[in-house]
Amino acid sequence: MASTSTMFLHLLFLLLLSQTAFSGEIVTSLPGFSGDLPFTLETGYTTVGDIEFFSYFVHSESNPAADPLLLYLNGGPGCSGLNGFFYQIGPLRFDLNNYTGGLPTLLSEPTAWSKTVNILFLDAPVGTGFTYATTTEAWNSTDTLTAVQIYDFLRNWLTDNPDFQTNPVYLGSDSYAGLIVPMLSMNIINGNTAGLEPFVNLKGFSIGCPHTDTIVETNAKIPFAHRLALISDYMYESAKTSCNGTYANVDATNTECVEALDDITQCIELISRQNVLEPNCAFLSPKEKEKAVRRSLRAMRRIKPLPNLGDLYCHNFQYLLSDIWTNYKSVQEALHVRLGMIPEFYRCNISITYTVDMNTVMPYHQNLTETGLQVLVFSGDHDMVMPHNGIELWIKSMDLTIDTDWRPWFTDGQVAGYTRRYTNTGYSLTYATVKASLEQHKFLELVTHLRSTNARNALTCFIDGFDIILSKILPIWLKILA
């Protein structure tokens, strides 16, 4: 009887929640941070059908009423908005160097983009972070459905936050979310054209190391490995000849091609795909699907200190701190999370029920060239997950006019990468490569350097119209690949 009553009350609770479109609350302090937060943080749920989307809204510290609104999506799929909040562009970071166990300490991030931009970090798709479904069916998601639901989320959020309806809106993403953003952009444009309210004042988007076209990206990896001397000339030519230059969807009966690709795989399988110059630390990578990963995470949580960093620094060690911190009850209470709706928080949830139904968004990119949007595409030049040569190939296929040809861009007088700008009747696309650091054991110093010298000042450049000049460094999304 008690069990039945408990179930009834739980269902009633969910029903009441579904009647509330948005339930945001101001967060004045967070466990692990000394004193009150020096910025305005609002967290809460936004209802979209049978899904309760959780978001973290950081008000601009400059002029929130007029500053741009950036909706920031992380990759995975399944990586929480807290990934961007703590590790990429947000106002707080973990004190990794002094962590010895227990509740991690939080520090202010002086180069946060929220100094001049309103940032809305989102847990999406459903099952990511603290976002949950109120029906069994709603836990299932796809690429196209996610793009639709995020558009509905944004409209609902703006409805409940009318003070931000006239702010210029930008979309930002990394990795897998690069597949979602073009679809989301088109959904917004179509909705605006159809007169849906509220009107979303979309101005542009930025995609870092974006997943765009599975075949193009797969075919780019072999030439990329050859260019970086990861495979020999003989191995490359053998694969190129036997596979006819096509390495996606290989015919299993083509034994020469299969064997050539197997040889290449053996050469590169122990290399960090996210950055081939970094140590390979796959045990905390969200790309690893095996259950042993989760067991190792839980075991690591019981260990007081993190592994000795020494000279071999693996930047994904720091990801463990977000899982430790967020699973404290006091933290979830401070964030106004509905306790018990998500059994355990993961920075990147590899167990979401998700179906890939979009292998390319090139038609979306092509259609968006007929709009007045401003687009930034950037790529690490040592990233083998989304190789830069593949990105350059699909950009070339769009047949845009080159406005500013290939040239270096600089920071502190040093070449930091290369850039090219394309246009098409009001539409612009800026492409930039970002050099990897050879001093991988100084990764934390590199992070601080990149964030402080590039990101915030250059984001202003991005939003003000992509007016790229050498004194205004390109916006760098410090991408730590999900």
UniProtKB/TrEMBL annotation:
Keyword annotations from UniProtKB, A to Z: Carboxypeptidase, Hydrolase, Protease, Signal
Signal peptide (UniProt feature, chain positions): 1-23
Any one GO BP annotation for this protein: proteolysis
Alphabetical list of InterPro entries matching this protein: AB_hydrolase_fold, Peptidase_S10
Stored Gene3D superfamilies: alpha/beta hydrolase (3.40.50.1820)
Domain of life of the organism encoding this protein: Eukaryota
GO molecular function: acyltransferase activity, transferring groups other than amino-acyl groups; serine-type carboxypeptidase activity
EC number(s) from the headed UniProt entry: 3.4.16.5
Similarity annotation: Belongs to the peptidase S10 family.
Protein name, UniProt field: Serine carboxypeptidase, putative
Organism: Ricinus communis
